Amino acid sequence: MKCLGFITTENLTDLHNDLQDHVAVYVPQTFQVAGFTFLIPKSDIEILDIKSEEAMKFILSGGMTTKKEK
């Protein structure tokens, strides 16, 4: 399973020393102005080559919008 989210903080050591190998990832909820912040090990993060606007549109629409083909 994969989940789309946005890295909001790459350095969490100010929060807690044990989080030096983690990043904060915000995962918005579909059809709402709400979401979750997860602290995820950097080794589990996969960076996608897409614009943040496209990712947000995809997430907020529940996956009903996709990138238009040329």
Mind explaining what this structure looks like?
The structure is a single chain. This protein has one helix and three strands; from the N terminus they run βββα. With 70 residues, it is α+β, with helices and mostly antiparallel strands. The protein has one domain (6-60). A three-stranded antiparallel beta sheet has the order 1-2-3. The longest helix has 9 residues, at 52-60. The N and C termini lie far apart (29 Å).
Topology:
Elements: E1 6-9, E2 22-28, E3 35-41, H1 52-60
Pfam families: DUF502
InterPro entries: COV1-like
SSE pattern, N- to C-terminal: EEEH
Shape verdict = elongated
What percent strand? 25-35%
Rg of Cα set: 14 Å
Strand order of the largest sheet: 1-2-3
Low-confidence stretches: none
Average pLDDT number: 91
In total, how many beta strands? 3
Number of domains: 1
Q: Total helix count? A: 1
Going by helix content, strand content and strand pairing, the class is alpha+beta
Helix content: 10-25%
Distance between the termini: 29 Å
**Main sheet?**
3 strands, antiparallel
InterPro entries: COV1-like
Pfam families: DUF502
Core attributes:
alpha+beta; 3-stranded antiparallel beta sheet; 70 residues
Short summary:
The chain has 70 residues and is an alpha+beta fold.
